[in-house]
Amino acid sequence: MNITTDWKDYEIIDMANGEKLERWGKYILIRPDPQIIWKEKSYPEKWKKANATYKRSKTGGGAWNFRDRLPASWKIKYNDLEFNIKPMGFKHTGLFPEQAVNWDWMINKIQKAKRPIKVLNLFAYTGGATVACLYAGASVCHVDSSKGMVAWAKENVISSKLQDRSVRYIVDDVVKFVQREIRRGNTYDAIIMDPPSYGRGASGEVWQFENNIADLVNLCTEILSNNPLFFLINSYTTGISAEVLGNILKINMKKYKGKISSGEVGLPMSSSNLVLPCGIYGRWEQ
Asked: For residues 182 and 216, what is the distance between their CA atoms, to the nearest angstrom?
């Protein structure tokens, strides 16, 4: 399990009964998590201090219950990176703190490369990886089909004072964008993707992880430079093993000399030896 212990503005305070008690800066939230199947709370009294709770509806979806009035958004930092947090309608806050282990890994790879690195960030969401790669000195092409998520990514880049770095923001279907880049002859030294389990592109294109991920990775190999630095796949799709991501990279990166690894990312609970598994990754690196 890959975890980071560098967070100061985020922590899991407790977790039990399908919920996690989290601190985001100075605000405390309760959100559901299907991995938390045990019932015993370690710190029952601390749950009463939550500022807001996200409750799922029996008919699907859910809603936030606010005990206190919270700002529409607030900022938290991870080392030198700064992000805008906003409680969203579908339980999310716009940031996945467990991804900090991948941010650290990417920053290290880019800084040690000692050469200009072009990064393509696909399904780039609110730009956590974009911010990390810009911070490390890379140029980044940020692609997501949601106009709102791309606007949020721009906010995060500005909050981290990286707006003067080389970054392109593209609102488009990922597959169509990659196909156009192939035709244009554009190449990248590093590719990051965090595809959803299910989604729709900018023009209603359907994406389903199990049906489309292998073809997309294969397509992306056509826009890799002759000297690629890394290829990172993240996934939160239920039922998919990290080894599957490793296998997809083994099949598609055969012509490049490098190392492949895969595993889980997670978050530690404060004052505890418990770790919450949060997702999987597959990495190819030079």
From this structure: 12
- 24's CB contacts (< 8 A; 6+ apart) are 9, 10, 74, 76, 85, 93
64: β partners: 54
Backbone angles phi, psi at 85, to 5 degrees: -100, 130
Q: Evaluate if residue 58 carries a pLDDT over 90.
A: no
- Using a 10 angstrom Cβ sphere, with 0-12 exposed, 13-18 middle and 19 or more buried, the burial of residue 182 is middle
Q: Which domains does the chain have, with CATH numbers?
A: 10-72 (2.60.40.1180), 97-285 (3.40.50.150)
Non-local (6+) Cβ contacts of 232 within 8 A are 102, 105, 106, 129, 190, 191, 192, 193, 281, 282, 283, 284
The full DSSP string for 4-35 is ----SSEEEEEEETTEEEEEETTEEEEEE-TT
SS3 2: strand
Closest of 158, 187, 153 to residue 171, by C-alpha: 153
pTM over 0.90: yes
**34-60 average pLDDT score:** 94
Residues forming a β-bridge with 103: none
Mean pLDDT of the chain: 96
As a whole number of angstroms, the distance between CA 23 and CA 12 comes to 6
Q: Using CA atoms, how far apart are residues 120 and 92, in angstroms rounded to an integer?
A: 24
Query: How far is it, in rounded angstroms, from Cα 47 to Cα 194?
Result: 32
- CA torsion angle for 154, 160, 162, 167 (degrees, to 10)? -30
Q: Which residues contact 39 (CB under 8 A, 6 or more apart)?
A: 16, 17
* Packed helices 209-220 and 242-252: angle between N→C axes, nearest 10 degrees: 30
Q: Can you tell me the distance from the alpha carbon of 183 to that of 38, in angstroms, rounded to the nearest whole number?
A: 51
